[in-house]
Amino acid sequence: MTERAKRAAAGAAVLQPHVTSSIEAAVLDELAAQGYGRLSMEAVAKRAGVGKSALYRRWPSKQDMVIAVLSDFSVPRAEIPDTGSVRGDLLATLRAVHEWLTHPRFARILPDLTAEAVRNPALATAIAATIGEPRRAFGATVLRRAIERGELPADLDLELALDLAAAPIYWRLTVRQAPVEPDFLERLADQLLRAFGARHMD
Predict the structure, then answer these.
(1) Is 202 a domain residue?
(2) What pTM was estimated for this model as a whole?
């Protein structure tokens, strides 16, 4: 191993997982409490009980830090295992979206982050690339599985279908701030299946 490789390996070892976890939790807490505009590296470091250098060893800027933490939090929640049926897959997807949007911290973060993204094109682009697109890719996988099983038509507009799946949950929770009845997601799944032209509803 070269000296440069040894130094790189030694530097990587400094990034201890438990410290990273503490920092990530602090980022989410600060975002929920202060919003993106008022969030500072100093406040995150203080909440996590580390020095600012621990943050800068991981991310070069506040935006990079926030995007990385939110991506790690958000993207894995969109990966849905194959349940064996289009209805099962779709219902699992809707439940995952609901759980994501109602997470105690994220529910407070999302409205502020959405407003900030309107004012900050660079932030909006980063959110789309690292959170929006990967989550939509997982959703597209669910729909393609159903197409391959013959449960959805081959000419289904995937982009439109993905918008239709997530939008009613976001609209009810964030825009209307209306209650979600116990059977809401099941009723939504059935409506979506009809809209998508599903051949099998079970």
Answers:
(1) no
(2) 0.87
pLDDT (mean) for 115-134: 96
Give a yes or no: residue 172 inside a domain. yes
- The rounded mean pLDDT for the chain is 91
The Cβ of residue 184 has, within 10 Å, a number of other Cβ atoms equal to 16
43 with 91, same domain: the answer is no
Q: How far apart are CA 160 and CA 107, in angstroms?
A: 24
